[in-house]
Amino acid sequence: MNRLKRNTSNWSRWLHIYLSMFSFIILLFFAVTGITLNHTEWFADQQSTKNIKGIIKANWVTIKDTAKIPKLDIVEYLRNTHAIKGAVGEFSIDDYQCAISFNGAGYTADVFINRGDASYEVIETRTGIWGVMNDLHKGRDAGKTWGWLIDASAVLMVLVSMTGLIMLFFLKKKRVSGILIMVLGGLISYLVYRIFVP
């Protein structure tokens, strides 16, 4: 039994240290952006909007059969001509215009193409580096791979927390006070929720 305790203590310490170091940067990122998300007004002056106008090939949009409108060609033309980034969120077509939205972390571009004369307007909005980081924190418009990284960092947080808790049980002098502080932290969080959250 003593050997099992010693092995558990050693493994929990080893895992806690190295998982903490491995995940340090990403956990720090989510901690810092947790604060900046709560105070987006600090970075409101970083947002910039640009309007661009142009004309595309008329035969792309003036044809009556909307199914024949070459969406991919239009999207690639806009990307290459104006360095538009982000994923295509929507490409809608009605009798009078085509509307395309591009979305990325800290970035949007909305394009409106007049089907009558093939003229278009691009409204591009950038929210600055903190806007990018806040969107990455939320996983908004960041793609599936970034979403997997968010999931992995959450699993690492759980493992770091659990290995820290296991380590606490092997520290006789600090076990009771540590558990009391943990319970107190949970209680304060619950009370803040119950009293102050509408």
What does this structure look like?
With 198 residues, the chain is an alpha+beta fold. It folds into two domains: 101 residues, no CATH class; 79 residues. Helix content is 58%, strand content 20%. The protein contains seven helices and five strands, in the order ααβααββββααα. It has a five-stranded antiparallel beta sheet with strand order 1-5-4-3-2. The longest helix is centred in the last third of the chain and has 27 residues. The protein is elongated. It starts with a helix and ends with a helix. The mean pLDDT is 91.
How many strands, which pairing sense, and closed or not: the largest β-sheet? 5 strands, antiparallel
Q: What strand order characterises the main sheet?
A: 1-5-4-3-2
Q: What is the percentage of strand-forming residues? A: 15-25%
- In angstroms, what is the radius of gyration? 26 Å
Count of discrete domains:
2
Q: What's the rounded overall pLDDT mean? A: 91
Q: Low-confidence parts lasting 5 or more residues at pLDDT below 50?
A: none
Oligomer: single chain
User: How does the helix and strand content classify structurally?
Assistant: alpha+beta
Helix content: 55-70%
What is the helix tally?
7
Order of helices and strands: HHEHHEEEEHHH
Dominant shape: elongated
Strand runs, count: 5
Distance between the termini: 50 Å
